[in-house]
Amino acid sequence: MRKAKENPFVPIGLAGFMGIVGYRLMKMKTRGDVKMSVHLIHMRVAAQGFVVGAMTLGVIYSMYNEFYLGAKQPKAVTNK
What we know:
4% of the residues are buried. The chain has helices at 2-6, 9-27, 36-72. It is an all-alpha fold. The longest helix is centred in the last third of the chain and has 37 residues, at 36-72. It starts with a helix and ends in an 8-residue tail after the last helix. The chain is elongated and about 75 Å long. The protein is built from 3 helices and no strands.
């Protein structure tokens, strides 16, 4: 749960991956004249694209939090 709070786009990517694979497997019944290998390749590309997109958004989100929001917060002053 801690990791999911630190990087919220990882569970989103996994859920999207599972959703796309499940949808494409259900759609396999009505694929028509499309070969099985072509259908599986399209499923793999769609699932990988979703995961890569979620990872990219996660990196942008963490960079925004670290550099933009981190710079705005005042640093604590320590007396020595």
